């Protein structure tokens, strides 16, 4: 497959040259079915890329977040997104698809990404998040060695959870102190990436992204759990919401903004590591106040504390210093905290309304929520 480096004309956005190319750039995304994968796919398709995504085999399809941009591959002139079965626990599949696709850019977004769940399945979390990243980097190194395609660029999705108990604000120079198996695994993936950059000269970047949310966020993450409950409570499908630590403070941004930073990292002349954050911190309680208040409800009437949702080791306060990314990449967030909360609540109120129609017609129950 062509490397996608022939260029015809260009425009400039955020100081980065966007290319109208006769041979499309090719991107490979692990975790394409996740929140970030879907937004990144949209961004790259808009920029003219051919996008390949690796998905795990499951008896149930898990492509809801990208169904709206999926085009049947038989429609060869329009289908610029293609999906392939692979897994970060399967080194042979990673190497096979890198060799077959010959990507220009690789974005490693796949992970067991739920912090609380990582305490329950630590072995699996480490295998996918840490060793899975190592497998992908080694597959890329081997591909470059045998093909000579030294221009291939790699993005590793890091996490603010790596900072753990280190006091804010956290920047690229802040020491890591992970407080969960997930965070420790992300630290390993981060240093694997640095090592392969230094040892083999691979263009490999770490994006240390602080919490980023959207209407596509998984429903077992606290922000989406809250906005789903707000919608259901407002429509009358639910009355209670059970949460853990309301004083945990996070730097919350919009996932659609953050994937642009990922892309910008791989358009630079040299690889580096960048913190991506809004530089504002808000507690879970503040999120509750904004979300419930937006629809005229008092969160205290509906929220109950359940100790099962407390982590064995808590992370109290994450707040990023993204000055390096803002200066070097020309990136800054477009969506603020209050706008993000309203965006998510609006979507989940509409989702609850659709649920209500099905419940009233007897096609589904209210999932036996209290």
Strand-helix topology:
Layout lengths: L8 E5 L2 E5 L5 E5 L4 H12 L3 E6 L25 E5 L5 H11 L3 E4 L6 H6 L1 H26 L5 E7 L21 H20 L2 E7 L2 E2 L8 H14 L5 E3 L5 E2 L2 E2 H11 L7 E4 L5 E2 H11 L8 E3 L17 H6 L8 H24 L10
Parallel strand pairs: 3-4, 3-6, 4-5, 6-7, 7-8, 8-13, 9-12, 10-15
Antiparallel strand pairs: 1-2, 11-14
Helix pairs in contact: 1-7, 2-4, 4-5, 6-8, 6-10, 8-10
Can you give a write-up of this model?
This protein has helices spanning 35-46, 91-101, 115-120, 122-147, 181-200, 222-235, 255-265, 284-294, 323-328, 337-360; strands spanning 9-13, 16-20, 26-30, 50-55, 81-85, 105-108, 153-159, 203-209, 212-213, 241-243, 249-250, 253-254, 273-276, 282-283, 303-305. It starts with 8 loop residues before the first strand and ends in a 10-residue tail after the last helix. Helix 2 (91-101) runs parallel beside helix 4 and helix 6 (222-235) crosses helix 10. The strands form 5 sheets. It has a 7-stranded parallel sheet, with helices on both faces. The chain has a two-stranded antiparallel sheet with strand order 1-2. Strands 9-12 form a two-stranded parallel ribbon. The chain is built from 10 helices and 15 strands. With 370 residues, the chain is of the alpha/beta class. Strand 3 (26-30), helix 1 and strand 4 form a beta-alpha-beta unit. One of its GO terms (biological process) is 'de novo' GDP-L-fucose biosynthetic process. Pathway: Nucleotide-sugar biosynthesis; GDP-L-fucose biosynthesis via de novo pathway; GDP-L-fucose from GDP-alpha-D-mannose: step 1/2.
